[in-house]
Amino acid sequence: MSPTPKKKGRPLSFDRDEALKKVMLLFWQHGYEATSLNDITTALDVKPSSIYSVFGDKKKLFLDAVHLYLSGPVTSEMIIEQALSASEAARELLRVSAVGFTGANTPPGCLLASSAISCSDAANDVKLELAVIRRDIEARLNAKILQSIAQKQLPDNTDAAGLAAMTMAVIQGMSTLARDGATREKLLHIGEIAMRIWPESSTA
To answer: Is residue 52 part of a domain?
Structure first.
């Protein structure tokens, strides 16, 4: 008798966390829409039914991957909350972004920015989800700037909303440059130049 052909795919007991890391890297490299279900099942060596059973649909899987991406050892929320001033928070956000966008073992750029750019109108709900995440980071930084103004770390006429938006714009631009092959040194330099826009301390 001939041996029974081996069925493709692992049972549902596969390591969910490890699987999610692999999927996160796929989305990070190719974007949301360009990453097909076949790409995912091939990378994980599982059947589509296993994906649906463990993660739900593709959108839910992607959002889980985004959550993993945002929950690293150092998060934007931690950086902003723990910084002694808003300018220190912005400088660290820019530095961490430059380093994160040019990792040796990860795709270049930012998963959030890359996925949003590659989404068509058909995935508008995903783009909106990513926009909410970015706006939340910007709002946290804006609140930190207002706090620094109240504590006389920045002048009273400081444009809090403008500085927060500018910092986020630079970070997204750095992501694009990283995807184009920019070095870490170049991105770090861009971050330092961006910080020159920030006003000096009102108590200096």
So the answer is: yes
